[in-house]
Every structure is written in C-alpha cells, then in structure tokens.
Design a protein that fits this description.
This protein has about 260 residues and is of the alpha/beta class. It has helices spanning about 5-10, 55-65, 85-95, 110-120, 125-140, 155-170, 185-200, 215-220, 235-240, 245-255; strands at about 15-30, 30-40, 45-50, 70-75, 80, 95-100, 175-180, 205-210, 220-225, 230-235. It is globular, with a radius of gyration of 18 Å. The structure holds adenosine-5'-diphosphate and magnesium ion.
Length: about 260
C-alpha cells in the first residue's frame, strides 16, 4: 500500500450519517440536470466529486444547502430533511459551510468583518466572541495579519483561505467545496489545498468538487465520478484511479491524468 493510502487510512470515518440523498432529481426548466442521485455521506468522510464540465457537480453541491431546489427525492443533513420550510433551510445552512471557485467575499468589508458578519447577525454571537473566533480561524489558515485589510488587497490564495476561515466561523459540521482552486494561479493552489488537507486531518466531513487528483489520492476516502447528471461510479481512490470500471470514467481519466 502506498504511503498516501496508509496516511488516509488513519483518518476515521464514523458510522453516523452526515448527508443522506435518496432518489434525488432536479430539473432546470425542462432540462433534467440531476438524475436519481443516491448518496450517503458519513461523518468524517472526505469525498472528491469529479466529472466533465456540465455534468451537474455544482448543481448537486448547491442542492445540498438549498442554493438550488430539487424537485424529486430527498436530502437530509444531520437528520434534518431539506424541505421548503425556511426553518429547516436555515438549520441546514448553519451546519453546512460552502466555498466557491470565486471566493464570494464581501469586497466592502474587511477580512475580519467578512468573518464576523454571519456569526453576529445569524448566530447572534456577541461581537467580542465573534472576533475571537474569527482570529482563531484566520490564524488557522495562516493569515491573521491580514485581518484589517479588504479582500481586494489580498492574493487569490489568501482570499480563498479567508473564505474557508469565514465558513469555519459558523462551526459547520460539513464543508462543501466547489472547485476552490480553479480560479487560482498555480503557485497559490498548494496553500489552499494544504488548508483543506489540515481540515480533513482534523476530521471535517468534506465534499469537494475538484480536478486536483493529487488531493483526491492523498485525502479522499471516496471519489465519485459524475456524468450527465448521474453518479456513474464511485470507489476509494486507489481503485478508482487504477481500475476504473465504466468507459465514461476511463475516458475522463485519460483526459485529465
Ligand atoms: P458542473 O458543475 O459539473 O460543470 P453544473 O451543475 O454547473 O455542472 O451544470 C450542469 C448543467 O446544468 C449544465 O448543462 C449547465 O449548463 C446547466 N445549468 C447550470 N445552472 C443552470 C441554471 N441556473 N439554469 C439552467 N441551466 C443550468
Ligand atoms: Mg461546476
């Protein structure tokens, strides 16, 4: 077994279900974008989702925290069923952190204000406590010295680390990443991946859409391949990369590896 696989084995996966998706379907108008998605994610799992552009990866991730509505089937996060009830949506969003390709920081707020906004206004945390928490996570992503600056004054890699810190300030049980390194210059990709690796090692449950297959091999306990709105294949990384089953997966891997 490779060293990476050995390291991966040491990260525990619980038998507690974090996310349970059953028979989920979604349409954009008449376009059937997600087809019969079944996916159970256990606490502590690090799942990498890959697949061609347009296969529905972002839509799947966005359905999990109700940024998109699904029309059929069910999604449960930590036992809370995602329905149109705003209470449930709020509860799920408070448990699920999300990082996007384009960071989505508020440009007119400082780094610290970006990190304290939701804890103060959504979680009703006292300001002093929110600042302490924010500084703790900014230290964790190794940019506490940038706290007073504005996003536009930071590099892309730093901004993405702020986005991760900002999510962590809400104490999520699960983190969703949608191509967090795709908009970054190559020299900045590693610093963001290193932050994600640290999170994984601390036991965070993570679903990551990424084309960083090195990250998948090192960190994921499961790789999922999507095509045309379906989960085509999933396996632990070694088997997924070394012995893909479907022709579509083989074709995809031959194009990216
Ligand atoms: P991926 O993230 O795998 O590239 P997406 O989930 O972004 O795929 O998109 C899946 C498909 O849904 C694509 O064909 C895309 O054009 C389409 N799509 C995405 N968002 C919308 C939208 N808001 N309205 C209509 N079609 C959309
Ligand atoms: Mg996408």
């Amino acid at each position: 077994m490779s060293e990476q696989a050995t390291a991966r084995k040491e990260l525990a996966v619980s038998d507690e279900v974090a996310i349970d998706i059953r028979g989920m379907n979604k349409w954009y108008g008449t376009f059937h974008v997600l087809r019969d998605i079944n996916l159970t994610v256990y606490q502590g799992e690090r799942i990498v989702i890959c697949g061609p552009s347009g296969s529905g990866k972002s839509t799947l991730i966005r359905c999990i925290n109700a940024l998109e509505e699904h029309q059929k089937g069910s999604i449960e996060v930590d036992g809370t069923k995602l329905t149109n009830d705003l209470k449930n949506i709020d509860k799920i969003r408070s448990e699920v952190g999300m990082c996007f390709q384009h960071f989505n920081l508020f440009p007119h707020l400082t780094i610290l204000e970006n990190c304290t906004l939701a804890p103060i206004w959504v979680r009703k945390e006292p300001k002093k406590q929110a600042i302490e928490t924010a500084m703790h996570f900014l230290e964790k992503v190794k940019i506490p010295d940038q706290a007073k600056k504005y996003p536009g004054q930071l590099s892309g890699g730093q901004q993405q680390r702020v986005a991760i810190a900002r999510s962590l300030c809400m104490k999520p049980r699960v983190m969703l990443f949608d191509e967090p390194t795709s908009a970054l210059d190559p020299e900045m990709i590693k610093e963001v991946l290193d932050t994600m690796i640290e999170l994984a090692e601390e036991g965070m449950t993570m679903l990551c859409v990424t084309h960083e297959m090195g990250f998948a091999r090192q960190v994921a306990n499961r790789v999922i391949f999507m095509d045309q709105g379906q989960i085509v294949e999933q396996n632990e990384p070694e088997a997924f990369f070394n012995n893909p089953q479907s022709d579509r997966t083989k074709l995809f891997l031959s194009q990216i590896l």
